[in-house]
Amino acid sequence: MASNPNSQSPALARPWNVDLTEPRIRVESWGRALVSDGRVVRATHPDTLRKIFEMARRDHRTIALRGAGNSYSDAFQNRGGLVLDTAGMDRILEWDSTTGIVRSEPGLTIGKMWRSTLQEGWWPPVVTGTMFASFGGLAAMNAHGKNNFKRGTFGEHIVEFTILLPTGEEKRCSPTENSELYYAAIGGFGMLGCFTDITLKMKKVHSGLVEVDAHVTRNLDEAFQCFEKHKDHIDYFVGWFDAFATGGDLGRGIIHTARYLREGEDPNPGMTLQPASQELPERILGFPKSLMWIALRPFVNDMGMRYINLAKYISSRVHPDGHRYRQSLAAFSFLLDYVPNWKLSYGPGGLIQYQSFIPKEKACETYKTLIRMSHERGVIPYLLVFKRHRRDPFLLTHAVDGYSLAMDYRVTEKNRGALWSLAAEMDEAVHAAGGRFYFAKDATLRSESLRRIWPKASIDQFLNLKKKCDPDGILQTDLFRRVFANEI
Ligand SMILES: Cc1cc2nc3c(=O)[nH]c(=O)nc-3n(C[C@H](O)[C@H](O)[C@H](O)COP(=O)(O)OP(=O)(O)OC[C@H]3O[C@@H](n4cnc5c(N)ncnc54)[C@H](O)[C@@H]3O)c2cc1C
Asked: Which fold does the domain 92-204 belong to in CATH?
């Protein structure tokens, strides 16, 4: 089983031997651009969690929960406080291969899950671009995949969960039991309590392959038309745009749509459903994949990335009318895991991602504006990824009936100020379009934005629940203090 290259090595605490005086260490966001510090303690058992909450209440400490540490934002950072790592709580507690219902501890990763169930024909209903995220982190952020428009978010497949509140109380929650907490804790970015078990309904699949269509789109308008044209026949939709293209080429790129194979379409499901047939290649272009980030390093600058974006677009034009092929579920889903530690190729300043979610009526024009703004300010994103979304019933949802564009920016000492100013300017365009942001990715949002993004009633309800679940304000993160600064 591949280990998580994203994990740091936090101090280990045994269930009853919890030491909250661990030295403070540097705690980085996934993309390394946000740096904080904290005392990292690790829980491998719910009793440890309970004990740590109790000690934090007694000693007036604050705690940030950490799953597998894949957030680009400051969602698991807690300057000067405790960072409670739950990655070690990763056991599958119950599995029913007839219904596809799994109950697991929160630290279970997507990768460990599909490797355990695919052979029996079950795949996670929603997966992120990395398989290293944990169920706890995915539930807390209510993560989405390339199938958000069709299957909704990770939270929509959670049948029930148990959450340990900072008061020490434990609650079982589902859409019908403690439902207010169910709809608020999913997407509640770890501010209401710690999930101790999560029950999820998996997706039945008849093959380990998906049928993929690659569509070349010559500009942003064509990318939007592509979704409308294919939406009724596909399960997945994801686009890549050349971040450097301007003028009439602005937003040119490749859209990948995919669908599950129906029963009987795969001549050899016994083989394709084997986890071994899904594993990502060990070598890329002849390089061992573990060293690939070093090979990429000289290209991760404006000139190199302009060339890489152009080369990717030109190579897609080999099939100007599209291209159909079959690909393993893992290879299609976890493109970002092909090159371990690719984030290191961005250099010491790391990267941030600016991902906005915009209602469909305004998305195309607003994304043209955001890309143009980046070019005008001379701070150009190196990667643009495009998805289609739908609304969901969770209190602080980021999803809209519309689209998202994720823009990856390299951060350097020199561009940091300009990048944060650009983000503030782009926020205005996103607000004007009725857009939203996603706490797993956001690194720049200011507290003034909070009430412009979510309805007042939702924020008030969330903060009331926080007071009930966490009256001493133990659960805190740098993200919470940054975005909710005007409310706390
Ligand atoms: C390469 C890459 C690709 C990605 N692609 C996508 C994508 O396609 N779609 C998408 O939606 N996201 C995506 N993400 C973001 C990622 O899915 C989220 O940040 C997710 O929350 C990460 O899970 P984690 O286990 O690493 O959680 P962490 O980053 O460790 O924590 C995330 C949040 O969950 C809280 N938390 C963690 N464990 C618990 C718990 N047991 N109980 C309560 N709260 C808890 C933390 O306090 C924190 O607020 C991607 C990230 C990376 C690095």
From this structure: 3.30.465
